[in-house]
Amino acid sequence: MSFSLADHEFMAKAIKLAQRGQFTTSPNPNVGCVIVKNNEIIGEGWHKKAGTGHAEVNALVNLTAEQTTDATAYVTLEPCSHFGRTPPCANQLIDANIKRVVVAMLDPNPLVAGKGILLLMQAGVDVKLGLLELDARALNLGFLSRMETKRPFVSVKMASSLDGKSALGNGQSKWITGAEARADVQTYRAKACAILSTATTVIADNAKLNVRAEQLNFSYPFDDVVKEIRQPIKIILDSRGDLDDKHQSELALFDGKESTVSGTSIIIVRKDSDELPASAHNNVSYIQLPYDESANRFDIGALLDWCGKNEINNLWVEAGAKLAASFVEQSLFDQLIVYIAPKIMGMNAQDVMPVGPFDAMEQTIELQLKTLTLLGQDMRLSYVNKSYVNKVAVKAVDIKESEE
Amino acid sequence: MSFSLADHEFMAKAIKLAQRGQFTTSPNPNVGCVIVKNNEIIGEGWHKKAGTGHAEVNALVNLTAEQTTDATAYVTLEPCSHFGRTPPCANQLIDANIKRVVVAMLDPNPLVAGKGILLLMQAGVDVKLGLLELDARALNLGFLSRMETKRPFVSVKMASSLDGKSALGNGQSKWITGAEARADVQTYRAKACAILSTATTVIADNAKLNVRAEQLNFSYPFDDVVKEIRQPIKIILDSRGDLDDKHQSELALFDGKESTVSGTSIIIVRKDSDELPASAHNNVSYIQLPYDESANRFDIGALLDWCGKNEINNLWVEAGAKLAASFVEQSLFDQLIVYIAPKIMGMNAQDVMPVGPFDAMEQTIELQLKTLTLLGQDMRLSYVNKSYVNKVAVKAVDIKESEE
């Protein structure tokens, strides 16, 4: 199947539109749509927020039946075929007399994949699939991960000196990286559905773990959306029950006097053998997860299962070296985001990644460099796990006529 | 003083010519020269090797007196005024009836700085100084360092995993970085006048420390020069006298059966309290330097003084973490060249930079990021020492008429 240059341009435009939803659509995916007639764009839409119009509907909304008749629609994700929060988009495209629909990728949910396309085909619409599929997948790594693996896309943040240290021997670590790198973290937090940290980190740094919209980095007009940017859920591992009532009233995370995050949800994770306290704050809730006493850590796999069940597409892990190492050692991460500062912290400082020990080079953990970005005097490196390659690979799905 | 756009272009060309000498001119500086008449380049020259023609002479060599009369010469370094290995270039420009000479920078040797320019001015030549001075200085960081500080420009190489480790706990370190990064090292070695390493490294890796011309990275026609690329002197610190006769006949460094470096000089550094053995190889010699028994290391300052006295412009330090840390801890380096591989080597692996320990963030060593280069899956980062800024800063030198 071959696509024209114009097809590529229109789909690229739809992908750009979809990106505008990056801070707001979860748990829904980012989707963009462009309606084209006589080689001109006559309608544009993107999905902004769960419960509001899908991209196709937003692209069609101002168009007359005359305009849409015999037009082409470019959509980054297969139009839906089920009555959910809104009527099925496939039907809306059919009702608008759209002649041709170009789809970047199938719905990742195997139960519905192909159904929207079949609906269109059965109505006589010319459907083409697979244009800029990799780019379309890149829009929704978190959503795809949850659909395909039942677990979120996991990004683990590290901040390191040039010599691989996260703190001095006495625990001092403010500030390893500069202001630009710290602001850069805001964009990752804002894209996340949940931030995972630990009671130790929250108490040591009195961390708010909140999103400051004014520090976000994006390049499109966005004033109306900035207002809607959600604060991610905070999931705090607390194996020792440190986050008691006293701490909850003192810490910025829990709406202390410094906090600007009122109303956001905080999930405190306790051992499944613990007795849970009554919550002192109405935005705090407790969950219990299995704890591995010999390894002295929570069962990360069980945590990721919990996240998947609770519609968390993207998990941003921002804590100390020990938690980061748990994810890396068990290969339960998708990407490492590493900030490296031009500092040497020397002997006895704390290792940024205490995994191992390893006895042979073949045992060491191999990553794959994905991006490299300069932030003032610091660098941001993103590395992907080997398993990531499978997670985001293009999936070929046969489309057959349904046998129902 | 203002220079025209054409002046800038011609000087930039002279600088590009000078760069061709980067692997061959030491202990002399890299110098380029362009002769321009009626806004056209009529002669080009660059210095290739000590004992052969200077840039000005090479630029003039094919030109007639008629051509050079009233021409302008662009030179990256002040023309010499003394009879050395060749006759003074200032006189040759005067003899050629050059009307105007544009000079990027003064001779860095304070004993002769300004003398070439005065000679030209006294002959009625219109001399302009300071065009693209910083670029001209960048050509000759090693030569300038030796002239201005009596010590070489010191580059310390590190190869590290992402988590700041140079070897596993058991010493394994082959290979942390990939083939592209290892080839990249060749270019640094080739630019160096001497490579500094240790007996420990040479024995553990059976390292040749040689330059393989076919792996060098440059972007100009260079076939004739490749043949002339010199093997840097190897300076090997040997505090325990490990490089005895037996090792010398077994190791690749000493023309062992694997070696391709016959004829190059090897300097073995022993403690000044040691009795020196008679050399077993005719390309090996011994020197003695002070040794700090309490810190368990040679006096690096004394080593750098020795290098300066022996016309070593650029010193490339390629050994283990301990030697690199000695340079960094004492701030005796100009740049760190760090290769970072996408690997995690984990706990108990060896720190790449064992300095300190430090008790406060203010004590940690701050570097300045200069360049960032992707090499396959690895990165090369160059960081400069704070003192470097002074070393390469433009030096204002008053030019006065001599009072002799």
TrEMBL record, chains A, B:
Q: Which Gene3D superfamilies match?
A: Cytidine Deaminase, domain 2, Dihydrofolate Reductase, subunit A
A GO molecular function term, named singly, is: zinc ion binding
What residues does substrate bind to?
Answer: 173, 189, 209, 212, 318
BP-aspect Gene Ontology terms: riboflavin biosynthetic process
* Location of the active site: 56 (proton donor)
Cite the binding residues for Zn(2+): 54, 80, 89
Residues forming the CMP/dCMP-type deaminase domain are 5-119
Question: Any idea which positions bind NADP(+)?
Answer: 159, 175, 201, 205, 239, 320-326
The UniProt function text for this chain reads:
Converts 2,5-diamino-6-(ribosylamino)-4(3h)-pyrimidinone 5'-phosphate into 5-amino-6-(ribosylamino)-2,4(1h,3h)-pyrimidinedione 5'-phosphate.
User: What is the protein name stated in its UniProt record?
Assistant: Riboflavin biosynthesis protein RibD
- What organism is this sequence from? Psychrosphaera saromensis
